[in-house]
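Q: Structure tokens for this one, please.
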Amino acid sequence: MTSPGFLFCCDPLRPTRTDSVFAEEECAARRVGARTALVDHDALLAGDLETAVRRVPRGSGPYWYRGWMMPAARYADFERALAARGCALLTDAAAYRRAHELPGWYGVFTGLTPRSVWRSLSAGELLPGPAAGLAEDLGPGPGIVKDFVKSRKDEWHEACFVPELKDVDRLAAVVGRFAELQGEFLAGGVVLRAYEPFVPGGEARVWWVDGEAARVTAHPDTPDRLPAPDLGAVGEAVRALDCRWVATDMALREDGVWRVVEVGDGQVSGLPAGDDGEGLFRALLGPSAL
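A: Here is the predicted structure, written as tokens:
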């Protein structure tokens, strides 16, 4: 049986080369004996599927994707385009959506992650209600605004943090600004999460392969800090999610409880600076990978 390979994003300007962001990772994958091939992320987003996968050899077996995020619908297109070339993704489209979007993973992580409510929206669509109607399910207190995939924490006070969810005007302003900044890249809809205070020290990113913790790294935003989280019940939740390669971001709440801040598909989750992923790729090539 053919061992897994890795599909990396190509450089948008030099499509025969690996995107510089993933170049060291591709070298690491090759060092551990993996096959690699390139896909054109820009072409994939544009719906040009033939161009997107033309450098993947026909009939070359199963692959893990390792590259930039894409909407779940585009990932499904990606899966079909590879299948037409006799290849397969080891994370199928349903599993990608489940791990990538908060409504897909929230249910099995309830109790381990901040309380959340959401509403599906298309890019450019206004949140009806307004947002205060959605916030009622969370109750009073501070909250966080994000979409199904990402927040805008770099615009913390402008488009992310709401000091009091009962403050209808402030909530509407933050949600509106968030949606404006996301624009056409709004993923899935709007999410409101209860704010939980965490101690300084950064987040840990835990990488799970087939339900087992394969590695714990620093979060890319704080590469110089590596907390040691208590994984406890998180592994049970990851296994219940039934997705093969998952990343969970964890932080220590002020009351001493480790919390899951975010869950993501491992294929599109970033490594901290200075980590080329070699140890992770070894785990993904293990005997359970097929």
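A few notes: The longest strand covers residues 245-252. Residues 65 and 119 are 29 Å apart (CA to CA).
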